[in-house]
Specification:
alpha+beta; 6-stranded mixed β-sheet; 2 domains; Methane Monooxygenase Hydroxylase, Chain G, domain 1; 9 helices
Amino acid sequence: MTGAAPDTADVVACLRYAGGRWQEVADPYGPGLDRAAEAREGFTWLALRDPPADRLAEVRRRLGLPEAVDVAEAGADDPVTVEVGTVGRDPAGGLRTGELTVTVAPRLVLAVHRGADGPLGAVAHHLAHRRHGATVDRWTVVLDLVQHVVTGYPDALEAVAGEINALEELVFDDRPDDGVVNRIHRLKRDLVELRRAMVPAQRPLGALADGDEPPLPGRVRRRLRQLREEVVQAVEQLNGYDDLLNSIFQARLAQISVAQNDDMRKIASWAAIAAVQTIVAGIYGMNFSDMPELHWPYGYPAVLTLMAGSAALLYWRLRRAGWL
């Protein structure tokens, strides 16, 4: 009795390139992948999206791939691993990040993406429709994957810039929105996610572009240098947005502090006005027989007039001083 075939829903592409053509590898979790990886001509590309950890470990074991090999320490025939973060926006405008891990062996490229908006499907489509006669090798796949990821960084940064511009208008409006601080906090969280995705890509791209191992074609090194510079520029732009957002946050905190001071002055002013009335009422509420104007027929109206007059005088002085 044969077991059920493993679910291949996490397989985006399993292709072998040989003789100038792409061939689909049947049974990617079975013997088909083993035969493709052992072929002496061309190379095999396996692209997985959110594979279970145990299945990925089994695939790496069958293909003889270590968990990770630092690019700077890899030899000419050693598998190397390149990790870059992916970014995108969901339909509601929220930030979505992921991680792309590409392992390059002598006759194999293993690409694993975790998270949303991965490049695997788009790159597979692009490579399948690549013009006839164009150079295709392992590093062509790597370049297409990394390029697809890096070119998505400016779109995410543009969305951040639009949100910062909107926050600036809200903060410096005549009546700032009370929800500005919460929006700033959410955007700060997005910036942390973007930094977590973008910054790690600089090191492996730089090591591949400037190192001697593994040996790469000149066109590949040139393109890798360009991609590294694009990542560096994106990170610098991200840092600039972070500084600008900090300035907006400080401006909003200053506005809140000024508003609180204004409220405290108003509260103190009304408390001072009420205190005068309380003092006069407290004095005349004492049980003494000898009180000023106590037996005068107009004493009561006179005291009320004194209280109202003192309140009006205080109100005028405090309003003139800008406290009310």
